[in-house]
Amino acid sequence: YFNFYPFLGFLFKTHKIMLGKIEDVRVILRQYMKASREDINENSVRSYIDALIFKQQEEKNKKDSLFHDDNLIASLLDLVMAGTETIATTLQWAILLMMKYPEIQKKVQEEIGRTVQAGSWATYEDRKNMPFTNAVLHEVQRFITLLPHVPRCTAVDTHFRGYFLPKGIIVIPSLTSVLLDKTQWETPHQFNPNHFLDAEGNFVKREAFLPFSTGRRNCIGESLAKMELFVFFVGLLQTFTFQPQPGVSEADLDLTVPQTTFTLRPQPQATCAVLHE
């Protein structure tokens, strides 16, 4: 937008700030790469950066190698942005929803108390014995539709439902159409963990649960994200009970999104974290 229509720059102030922050991250990543090169040990791969640099060195005489600095930075940026920001934002939503629905938060904490030994932290394997907590986390992801519009590009000429999509065209699927589909969910616009529970309280998978997209280009970090969300969420509720600040009721908490960005983030709201006994 900025190069073609500079006079419209005032419309994209937030986006320009975000791009500036991304460049700040690139600078930090370049510093890490420089430090890694200076004391790298071929007998010990300490990090993802080390692994990329080793591969770069292996292919340094290869004319068409893709392991040049720009691609290394892009790979690291993907890892940081996709693997950190999305998890953090989902946990922000989870905490806000626990504040909004304290009865659900209480049931999660009771299930944690029954399942996780006192003085220990939950493991990902514990989710099998924690159907309600598992259902709550799935419902958080369904309800918030964190990344509803991830663009794709057609690899070949494609015909789809009567439409011709030429090779190289950008296609933006809408995950909202699935995650909030009234034909798939009993109460699509309400936060309802029962969407993932049967009549006996057992966890059930739902075919329409697609927060990580679908197909061969679905989120590559899905397995890691599921583990992180479960362990972090349970750890937080083992330690704290989340409440609105004094003078603010659950009904006052705002679940709307302040403005559309790549990820849908909650409104900034004061949070009280009370130690859970």
UniProtKB/TrEMBL annotation:
It is found in: Endoplasmic reticulum membrane; Microsome membrane. InterPro entries: Cyt_P450, Cyt_P450_CS, Cyt_P450_E_grp-I, Cyt_P450_sf, Cytochrome_P450_fam2. The keyword Repressor does not apply. It is a peripheral membrane protein. The keyword Lipid metabolism does not apply. Signal peptide: none annotated. It comes from the Eukaryota. Heme binds at residue 219. Belongs to the cytochrome P450 family. PANTHER family: CYTOCHROME P450 2W1 (PTHR24300:SF291), CYTOCHROME P450 508A4-RELATED (PTHR24300). This is CP2W1 protein. It comes from Atlantisia rogersi (Inaccessible Island rail).
